Amino acid sequence: xxxxxxxxxxxxxxxxxxxxxxxxxxxxxxxxxxxxxxxxxxxxxxxxxxxxxxxxxxxxxxxxxxxxxxxxxxxxxxxxxxxxxxxxxxxxxxxxxxxxxxxxxxxxxxxxxxxxxxxxxxxxxxxxxxxxxxxxxxxxxxxxxxxxxxxxxxxxxxxxxxxxxxxxxxxxxxxxxxxxxxxxxxxxxxxxxxxxxxxxxxxxxxxxxxxxxxxxxxxxxxxxxxxxxxxxxxx
Length: 235
Fold this sequence. Notes:
alpha+beta; 2 domains; 235 residues
């Protein structure tokens, strides 16, 4: 004989927004419904008394799981790929700005690195054009090396990474770092190291840029130094 549920609490959900997110249970990009609810005490299935608000929650359209709004902090796969691609591009430009572009080996390595990151149509002219535009914006490249000639700028004694470029590195890398495994953060740093080493040893300006990259990627200074030293040793 089945027992009748005399009293209980029922939640009535209302959809207030939708979008796409990375579903923790599905392990991939899915659509979601953002919902808010009201809890009501029921007697014999009939709502009789409000028990307060519920949610908001995200309901996955695929698995129907409910998640807190902090699930939106994890980038979708598409967004993550774009963040990683942009990060490689920013690191490459910062290193070229610091070390100059007079070396063909450096230019070739930079182009290959950016292409491998997802900018398949990247060319040497593309990077040089961007660097020339940055060099013309003195507020962003103060204290760097001349991006076109490879010579040292007149702003000696200032931050070789350029204050604004350092800020841009942090803005590009810090949101990405928590979503990268340690090996991924190290790989990104080493990609920059290979660009800097394409024409020989690190210059002081390149070394400072790479230290900024390591800090933005949440790597300890000792780990950054270890990786940069290992990159100089042929395997």
